Amino acid sequence: MSDIICQWLNSELRLSKVLEPISFTKDFANGYLIGEILYRYELQDDFHLFSKQSTPNAKLNNFTRLEPTLQLLGVPFDLAMAKSVMQGRQGAATHLLYQLYILLQKKKRSGLTAAAMEVMQPAATARLHRIENSIYTERLKTVVKRETDLKMQKIAKRFHKRGQDMYNHSVMAEFLKEEERLKRLEDRRLRDIEKHQQVHRKQQEIMIQIQSAVVQIPKPPHARTSRGLEKQQQHFRKQREAQHVHREISHFEKNQKRISPAGGEALLYSGPVTQPTNADDKEQWNREYIKKIRQRLEEDSAAREQREMRRRRALLEQLQAHEAQQEALREEQMVNRLMRQTQQEKRIAVQLMQIKQQKEVLRQNRIFLERQYQERRLRDFQEALEREAVLARQEHLERSEEIRMEREQHKRLAAERAQAGYRKHFDICREILGQIVDLATKAGEYRLLTSNLIPVKMMQEWMELFYSGKPLYEVASVEPTPIDPTPEQIIELEKRSILNEIDYDEYVGMTGEWVWPEEGESQAPPVNNDILDHVVSHLQNMIIKPNTSPPNPLFPRFTIRACVLGKTYSGKTTCLTRIHNVLGLHVLSVNTLIQEALSAYQQNNLERCSSSTDGTSLDSGPHSHETQTSGHHERKEKEKWSLRAQHGAAVEKILRTGKAVPDELLVDIIVDAIRNVPADSGWILDGFPVDVTQAQMLENALNGTKPDGAEPKTQPSSRAKNKTTSKHPPPPSAALDLVVLLDVSDEQVLERAAQQTVVVDSREQEREDSDALEEKRSTDLDTQDPTSLSTDKSLEREQIQHRISGFHDTWPKLEKWFGDQQNILVKITAEEDEDILFSNVEMILKDTMDSVEKGSALGHSGKKSSLSDHTRPGTACSAPQTTPRSAARAFVDEPLPKEIPQYLVPYWETTCNSYVTNVKTVMQNLRGERELIIHHLYNIRENFRQHLQKPDLKQEFVSAWQRDYNNVPDNIRDDEETKGELHQRLDDLRERLWDICDKRKEESMQERASVIDDDWLDDHTAVLINHYSALMQIEVSKFQDSVCLMKDYYSGMYKSVLPESRPDFACVPLLDITRDDNTEPEAPKISSVTAPSEKRSKSAGRKDTEIEDKKKSKMFPLVSCTAPSNELSKQVLLCPDEKLLLEFYQTALTAVKNMVCAETQQQEEEKGDEEQQQQIVHRLSQASNSATDKKKAGKKKGAPSPSQEPSPQPAVEENPDEAKRRTVRRRIRQEFTAALEHEEHAVTLRLELVKAHALKTMSSLLQRAEQTYGNMDDWLGARFLSEMKSIDQLTELVRQHIENSVQIRHELVLQCTDFCIDGDTQVVASPPPPPRPLMLEQPNNSTLTVQQLNILCTQLHKAAPTGLLSTNEMSEVLQDLMSSHMGSGALPEPWMNLTTSQVVELVCVLAPDSEMLNWHQFLLSAALPWPFPSQNQLIKTLQRYKAIDTAGTGLITHEQYTQVELWFPSKRDLPVPDDPTEPLPFDRQANLKQFFFTLFASAHTSPVTLDYLNMLLYFCCHPEPAQGFTRALSLMSGHTLNYKHTSPLIQSMPYMEGTEIKEVDADDEEERGAESEEEGVSVDDVLRVLSHGNNPMSTFPNRFHLNCSSTDEYREELVKVCKELGFKAEEKIPFSILSQHPFLQDIMEGSSQYLLIDIHKILQIQKTEGDSKSFETS
């Protein structure tokens, strides 16, 4: 187990330290390597905090961080386990690693991350783990004591001991001195007492007299006595020593804390010292030791000085006390001398002493009072401080409690948010999983229904419902359509609507199953009719004025447009303030802009009030006039307001209602502020937008685009006409250049909020303290309520949680909008220092400004054009717009009466809506028929199967015959006559069973015939034909309505009364599926009878109500549907159905052509009438002119004159209005004709598409029906044959029993098609022998199998398709193959045992002088052993390849390659093993031949071809490069060559066939030597040999190398060599002469592409010697 763990840790994980099983206990004692293991599996994110040291602090840190991760994995890791691992108990680390290995392998297979494991962990378990973690941490601290604690404990003991010793020493010395001193004082006191008693007795009388007036001189206090002074000095001395010890201890602790992270220095007397290992460390340690000794000596000297100073101070204090005692004694003696004077002097002296004592008492009293006052002030101040401290602590506790509650609330909200997200994701995943299960079960059901052939269209419908989130199974019935549907019925109606929409889109767009069916043709759907679009648009614009979109907003050029987003307290405002000061960018804050708008509004109100007040004082007019004009003045004043003031008015109005400012108004305020930003400057939004809605509205406002819901109403015509336009318009360009997110954690937000509150409170407290006196003196009341301030603060603190939650709710959509869609989002960590955050934001803003400058300078015009394209409205749902073709055409736009558009627009809308509805209805009916047909075919198959499984009477006859047979006496069974009789009975039984089978077969055939003769399929085929006929009728009706619309439109331009429409509509006939059994069906005849329709009056004065009440009534002719005859029972109306469809199609096409011809004829008649009318007018004008001339002539002459020649008639002047009208009518006719032709082409294409789809559907239905009937026939035949086979098996078994003259002990059972014995043992035929297993090549030492060669070839081809690979890449490929994840069979065992350094050295041996390696040559060496060819064999193989390459391209296919034998036989007769379970022997040579083709063939061509000359040049390789070059040159020249070289030739090569490389015998060599003297080689041959192997020619090192890097340069050098040898460049030079030239010899010796390295020998040498330092080539 330890070896497995070691291999896992060293090979797979590759830890930072190589581990051995012996050192497990020591290596894992500090927990660092365990953390590294978890970090490799992405479970320990805080691994950078682990410590490699083995100190107690490092162990405590590492094992504290390990415990949560191990608990998450499920490892039973507690305090005992941690203590065992840290103390290095035997087996503890191994046991823990084994558990880790098992659990981490499971985690790796499951593919779960640490985050996923934490999410999947139950909440109760996670909480329990947290509690256990805290307990574990505290207990671990008690078990593992810190290094500082241990050192402090030792130091404290040492100092305690020293202090105790010093204390004991000082106390004993002082105690002895004190005893001696007390003894001397006691003796002196006794002597003095005796003297005083004598003096006291003498003075007692005098003292009694002045007792009342004399103030007793008090006895000196105890503190002034020598004993008291000594005790006080001793007490002070002990206090100073204690303080000194404490100061030293605190100083030591500070130093220890400062140096504790190093953890490597040892203090003096703190424990055992580790001796250094080298001289430098020893010298350093000596210096430190001497330094510490000196430091100790210095400390001792300082201590001695301190002791000397204390001794001197004590002596000085004793001296002062002695002086004070002497002074008191002198005073007493002076008093005694004075008392010896006269009584008066004594009295005066007593008075003076009394006065002096009184003064001293007064002074002492004053000092005492001042001391009391000072103490009181200090006590009051201390009490105030304590009171302030208590209040501060109470406030701190309250604030801490509030912070704790806020954090708990935040954690609860975060947990609720995470739980809600988890529940949401869980519900989504559950719904998706349910839909996937439904899809799988639906597919499984229909596989049964359709025999594993689900229609593609049905699968597409299921996938569309799956993507839409709708259930695949029917949840409620909607037939008939309910008036008040339930929720389940609403879902079904939505599903139907989705499928109808898809079918309609495919039909109109000619995609999916409605694609053009003809092969080789790609027919696009008919394009929109420009003329009809113009007509409809013109009519709609006459009723509804076109909605003109406002022009795009014009903004000045800005250097940057950005916004900064983030949570509250993320530092947005602070950072932007510095940005404004440094970069000069305008910061736009929503709150500031609203305040400015309100201020502007209030300012305007003040101005208006002042102006109104002035007007009132000056105005003396009547009040009524003022009332009338007040509203007018207010409106005028509002119009004069600025836009900002208007926004402020709107904001105040909304805020007074208690509502929030709407997003539209916020965007308007921001856009107005952006307009006021000066040109060539930039602006940044502070905290706006906060959600996607505001972002979209801001983008629409800045780009000038309309929001999604602002498009004009969709006209119904757009659905039927404009289907080629895109459904999704291109997204508009981003309105912002940059969006910066200041990312900060929620905990940091709460902490900053708490700090902000504390700072604000402290500032308010300071302000209150500084203004306390002023507030006391002032009499004005403060307008600000302190309760409101506290309320605002608490409200703000409460809103922090809601703001954080709101940010988490809105940010994901904003991140997707700015990050994924617009790619302008930049995230910055805001938890850093303020200066670092400012520098990061500043750098990003500067980069963005530079990029904006460059972009505006390069593509300003392109950006404008793209912006205009994006803002241009154009969707699939918009009204028909003018296309580029229609824009170039001038349409006729003559005025129309108002009544015509009012009638034609609703008429066209009704036509388009009916077209869409009818098409969807037909598609829905087709889907229903498809479902019914699928289920019907499945039902007839299942019913026929059940019919075939019906029981029969065969078993009864068999049982009766078996009873009769067993009743035959045993003594007569051997009789031949009895056997003959039994055989005869058996034959009778067989004949009877055969008769039963024949009868069942006839019944089944009759059942199949009845199924085929059933009329259900014919009826539903007729229903399908009627649906397609209805679809044709819809297209024809749409065409006729379009023609009527255009005809009425153009007629209204030049006629006062519209012409009447055609009296009837064209109708496509339908099949009559109602049958009459008594009458013979007639042959199908297509009737073209059309039902008359009500006439539509189109006069301009007719009312709309009368027009709406009149509707078209269409009567469809019915065609009888004949049933198939008995002779055609196997056909399902194939020919009649196709004929009917073609006739219906021809009827619809004829109706369209007739309508076109009628309209064309009518146009021609109108044109002829106009020309005839023009001729009549012309003749009348001529006649009137002639009559006028005659009158004039009669008046002049008075009598008729002889006949005169008629004078020439003047030209008739044509009326210009009439000419204009005639021109307009001609244009109208041309335009109407063009539109009519376009509509004719479109409807013809649609009808042809419907016909083709119908024929395809009928053909598919016929094919499925024939397949069903064929399956029924196959089932019937298979059952009959199985029954016959079971009867034969029964007969054979019984005959054996008859011949053996034994009874049939077992019951014979015929179960349907099976023959069984005893009811459960089936009789079957003997199975065929199993096939032999596949041939497998057995591994042989370091030789690669052919399969391994193919794997290696595939990997190398992926890494370098050209064939050249760097040595580093080659090493990586080999190491990947040697790794454990590739399996154990990728390479042989010796290869798998190579280390990384051995692989690198092996690759360096293969490419010694280059960084590139030809892996073809490497694989050729790795494929050894293979037969080594001679020069003759290579030349003959080349000749065979050239013979089969008739085209002379130098390339052959794989088929040609297999036809040519190489220099070794590819097929050999191998012995076949007798055991059929053993595999056949593996033919390595045959498989090597196939591998050679795979190795050298080019996969870039189709089919794969092989350059055989290139392959043979690779086989020219030799252990000596000069010999390989010679072999390649002989292959190029076509004859053998010999090269005599001075280097010793290697005579043997292991792993090749034979033990020596012998190309030819001696005789052959002499013959070739004689021939080679006559033959020669050319310069071209040498160049072709040099250019082999994809190696550049400059890689050949030689002493004549002249930096030849191309073929031309090498040619020049070779030409020089030829001239030096006395030959011309075109002549062939004998190789014996050419090879002696030094230039060519160097080239030959350095031609590494012809060097064949024996890799196996290298590996063998490495294995035997066990030394991987160097490899040598063989």
Helical content band: 55-70%
Please, how many helices?
A: 50
Please state how the strands of the largest beta sheet are arranged side by side.
Answer: 2-3-1-4-5
- Mean of residue pLDDT values: 75
How many E strands? Answer: 17
Radius of gyration: 58 Å
Report the sheet-strand fraction.
under 5%
Low-confidence stretches: 261-276, 615-634, 636-640, 709-728, 772-791, 858-888, 1076-1115, 1122-1134, 1191-1212, 1542-1574, 1591-1605, 1668-1674
> In this structure, how is the largest beta sheet organized?
5 strands, parallel
Give the end-to-end Cα distance, rounded to a whole number of Å: 41 Å
> Which class best fits the helix and strand makeup?
mainly alpha
Indicate the overall shape.
extended
Can you describe this structure?
With 1674 residues, this protein is mostly helical. The chain is 65% helix and 4% strand. The strands form six sheets. A five-stranded parallel beta sheet has the order 2-3-1-4-5, with helices on both faces. A three-stranded antiparallel beta sheet has the order 8-9-10. Strand 9 (1314-1317) and strand 10 form a beta hairpin. Helix 17 (590-618) packs across helix 19 (643-656), helix 28 (899-948) runs antiparallel to helix 30 and helix 31 packs antiparallel against helix 34.
